[in-house]
Amino acid sequence: MTIDQFNFAGKKAFVRVDFNVPLDENFNITDDTRMRAALPTLKKILADGGSIIIGSHLGRPKGVTDKFSLKHILKHLSELLGVEVQFANDCMGEEAAVKAAALKPGEVLLLENLRFYAEEEGKPRGLADDATDEEKAAAKKAVKESQKEFTKKLASYADCYVNDAFGTAHRAHASTALIAQYFDKDHKMFGYLMEKEVKAVDKVLNDIHRPFTAIMGGSKVSSKIEIIENLLNKVDNLIIAGGMTYTFTKAMGGKIGLSICEDDKLDLALDLMKKAKDKGVNLVLAVDAKVADSFSNDANTKFCDVNDIPDGWEGLDIGPKTEELFANVIKGSKTILWNGPTGVFEFENFTHGSRAVADAIVEATKNGAFSLVGGGDSVACINKFGLAKEVSYVSTGGGALLEAIEGKVLPGIAAING
Ligand code: AMP
Predict the structure, then answer these.
(1) Mean pLDDT, rounded, for 180-189
(2) Is residue 34 flagged as an active site residue?
(3) DSSP state, 308?
């Protein structure tokens, strides 16, 4: 079932959203992107004449914690929806069931943070540090057992289930995946945001227009290894950028000074280079670097060859030759995936390389390429440059996007697709 096909008139929908928004110390929302991202789905249900029970998590509470209460976002949600949203202080309490049952068309009920219950994640809590393996196993079994009741109760509030929380699609949690089993295929569906995310991932994994270029940046090769290996089977060009560059440079015998490097991953870097060669993938590595004499925005800087970094200096961004090299590859591409900055973009003086990559992606997109930016810091990067609207799609899912690109089946998606 798709959300467009479904008529919500007179129906109660349990909608799992990702309202895990950042709050300041006075509980003001500092960035409501995630809330706005769910509005098309919520508004469609209300416009149809349905009512909504909203479930979400906020932060990583280890129990009931005022700091992570969803009541902090209630007012803003009401403003965004133009509806006075009701609140249930406890997603499992009598109040939640009564309020859900009483919902009339056009009404909305926000449940308190689902992660106030260990059952949402299905992981035991409060185990003593010195718990034995048997105690751990028993606690795990107990929470899995009570998770069934928890999930069933959430499902009982509604006639249909909508998952619009791509950010948690890689988790097999009660409200993101397990709940789907209580609805038949005609009563469970993705929300609009989730649909868009799934389509965007599908485009870079299965509907590839060539050449396909992936730009992998960030700090460590070890955290990106599975993605890189999967991408080697798909891409024509693989650009390696960011801190992981220096592991490759050192593996090839270059001098990297104090640059970040995973010494236990040198063989892995060589192995990836060999795999790229065997598969006919053009592996594009930096040729020069912007180096600094300390890890600071105010450090002294200069440009040098990436394999000849002086002692006491470290590479914190790519240099101009590399910018041009990367930009040319990107501009010639028809499918582009960008994950991870080319340097320490948090420091103003080391954003230039990431900006050059972003500009090249924007130009390629104008020329008809499909560009997907996602996974952690590249989203912060593209937002910082104000270019989010100039690329084809900016994913809202960090870990979920990366796992999808690794080729993993995401539980939240599988639960709907069957
Ligand atoms: P990731 O979360 O793996 O995408 O890594 C992003 C982080 O990598 C950002 O915080 C960057 O500051 C960092 N990073 C990128 N390039 C470098 C570099 N050359 N040296 C140290 N850290 C870097």
Answers:
(1) 98
(2) yes
(3) B
Give the position of tokens 């769910």. Answer: 38
Q: Is the distance from CB of 391 to CB of 361 less than 8 angstroms?
A: yes
CA dist 17 and 39 (Å) reads 10
Selected catalytic residue, list 59, 106, 254, 376: 376
Residue 213, strand partner residues: 237, 336
Distances (CA, A) of 288 to 249, 255, 318, 321: 11, 12, 6, 6
Instruction: Please give the C-alpha separations between residue 160 and each of 1, 15, 85, 156, 416, in angstroms, as whole numbers.
Output: 11, 9, 19, 10, 12
Q: How far is CA 28 from CA 22, 114, 115, 217, in A?
A: 8, 20, 20, 32
Side by side, the strands of the sheet bearing 12-16 are 86-88, 108-111, 51-55, 12-16, 160-163, 188-190
Probe residue for ligand 1, chosen from 219, 250, 260, 354 as the CB with the greatest number of ligand atoms within 8 Å: 219
Which pLDDT tens digit goes with each residue over 289-311?
999 999 999 999 999 999 999 99
Q: What is the pTM of this model?
A: 0.88
State what percent of residues in the chain have pLDDT above 90. Answer: 89
The atom of ligand 1 lying closest to the CA of 344 is 12
| CA-proximal residue: ligand 1, atom 17 (nearest) | 243
The conformation of residue 112, written as its DSSP 8-state character, comes to P
- Cα of 92 from ligand 1 centre, angstroms: 41
Pairing status of strand 237-240 against strand 212-216: parallel
- 93-152 pLDDT, tens digit each: 999 999 999 999 999 999 999 999 999 999 999 889 899 999 999 999 999 999 999 999
Report the alpha-carbon distance of residue 140 to residue 122 in Å, rounded: 8
Would the CB of 260 count as within 6 Å of ligand 1? Answer: yes
Q: Report the Cα–Cα distance between both ends of the chain, in Å, rounded.
A: 11
In a 3-state reduction of DSSP, which class is residue 30?
Answer: coil
Closest CA relative to residue 311, chosen from 356, 363, 258: 258
Question: Is 148 one of the catalytic residues?
Answer: no
243 C-beta closer than 6 A to ligand 1: yes
* Spatial distance between the Cα atoms of 284 and 280, rounded to a whole number of angstroms: 12
For residue 162, list its beta bridge partners: 15, 189
Q: Are 388 and 31 in contact (CB under 8 A)?
A: no
